[in-house]
Amino acid sequence: MIPKIFENAFLASPQMAWYIFWTVIFFFVVYSLILLYHWMRYSESGAVTLAASLVYFGGSIVLINIMFFSVINFVG
Fold it and tell me: Considering its fold, how many domains does the chain have in total?
């Protein structure tokens, strides 16, 4: 439960939470594509690239899920 003072300070409406969520996802995808290009283009070891990708995307999926369910909890 979010105290009303924080709700009013950060979000004008519950719809704003979804706008913020999708904006963060958009920037995450753009950043991830740039990062993957860099890893694939300049990496000397495919194993290191694979390990870095698994760690990066594994952690990202966890954090994105937490953010998604937080928005659902806030809106609903």
Answer: 1
Identify the pLDDT of residue 2: 55
How far, in Å, are 21, 28, 30, 71, 75 from residue 7 at the CA level?
Answer: 16, 25, 29, 12, 11
Low-confidence ranges of the chain (pLDDT < 50): none
Domain holding 71, by residue range, is 4-75
**Residue that is written with structure tokens 């937080």 in the block:** 70
Taking alpha carbons only, the member of 41, 40, 68, 76 closest to residue 56 is: 40
Biggest alpha carbon distance in the chain?
Answer: 52
d(C-alpha 62, C-alpha 76), whole Å: 21
